[in-house]
Amino acid sequence: QYDFVIVGGAEKLTDVPDITGNQITDSAADHEWEVVFGATLPGLWALIARRHMHQYGTKREEFAAVPVHDHEMAAKNPNAHYRNKITLEQVLGATPVAQPLGMLDCAPLSDGAAAVVLGPMEVARKYTDTPIHISASQVACDTMAVHHRRDITTLDSTAVAARRAFQQARRTPKDVQIAEIFDGYSIGALVALEDIGFVAKGASGPAFAAGEFGRGGRVVVNSSGGLKAQGRPFGAVGVAQVVELVRQLRGDAKDRQIAGANLGLAHDVGGTGATSVIHLLERTN
């Protein structure tokens, strides 16, 4: 056993052609019945978006608000892949990828790396005045095949991981001030907000479009810019989310600092929800 360990993640997708990178990422989807017939990750997330629109009346403009928000946040992140702001009109008018998703609804393939140091609290206090406590860490899984799920507008893996994490930490979604959530595709952010428990099913679209998850909202989401704008280096995303939360909770986020952040949530997804991970991080006195 060791007192301190380093946890790191890295990605170098630009070392291969785009088509190879897409083939690698599509391996996170079901190949036996879905990919073999032409399904892609954007296509599967587009199916989820269409069903969410049908089932809850979600509007195209509502999940288009996600990338606008992400780019707004990333404008103050010096490590972001994209630091430019975009408009709702640009998102809606972007090149179609898989209807209703367009180019600006999808996170880029990025290079990147991130690392954190883990250790026992009593020892960590010798090296820093602001150690961050891991209050909960949970992983849950679902079927890889989207067509096997009871309801494709819900990621059961996220719902289960979130429920277990809040139970472990003895907290509720209302206790969270800041969250880094999966937004590899804009609809993914809306589904995550519902499955984590920040809003009721079907309510995330209007809430997001109304600014309830921006600065000054009920929970500030993706202060880093999220996968969409900070970037999506697959092997580093989960660790990068934790790095952002640690900076926020320690008060080290500079221009993008969120005031009053004491409890943060990190949420990442594999594929279309075959795996979800939830961490709850807490500032200690």
Verbal overview:
Helix 3 packs across helix 7. The model has no long low-confidence stretch (mean pLDDT 96). The protein has ten helices and nine strands. It has a single domain, classed as Peroxisomal Thiolase, Chain A, domain 1, CATH 3.40.47. It has a five-stranded mixed β-sheet, sandwiched between helices. Helices cover 34% and strands 19% of the residues. The protein is α/β, with parallel strands linked by helices and 285 residues long. It is globular, with a radius of gyration of 18 Å.
Q: Radius of gyration, rounded?
A: 18 Å
Under CATH, the topology is which? Peroxisomal Thiolase, Chain A, domain 1
Distance between the termini: 27 Å
In the CATH hierarchy, the architecture is 3-Layer(aba) Sandwich
Largest sheet: 5 strands, mixed
Q: DSSP strand (E) fraction? A: 15-25%
Please indicate the count of domains. 1
Helix content: 25-40%
Please tell me the overall pLDDT: 96
CATH homology superfamily name: Thiolase/Chalcone synthase
Order of helices and strands: EHHHHEEEHEHEHHEHHEE
Structural class: alpha/beta
Per DSSP, the total helix count is 10
Quickly name the level 1 CATH class. Alpha Beta
Number of strands: 9
Unreliable stretches, pLDDT < 50, 5 or more residues?
Answer: none
Instruction: Describe the global form.
Output: globular
Q: What is the topology, as strand order, of the major beta sheet? A: 5-9-8-6-7
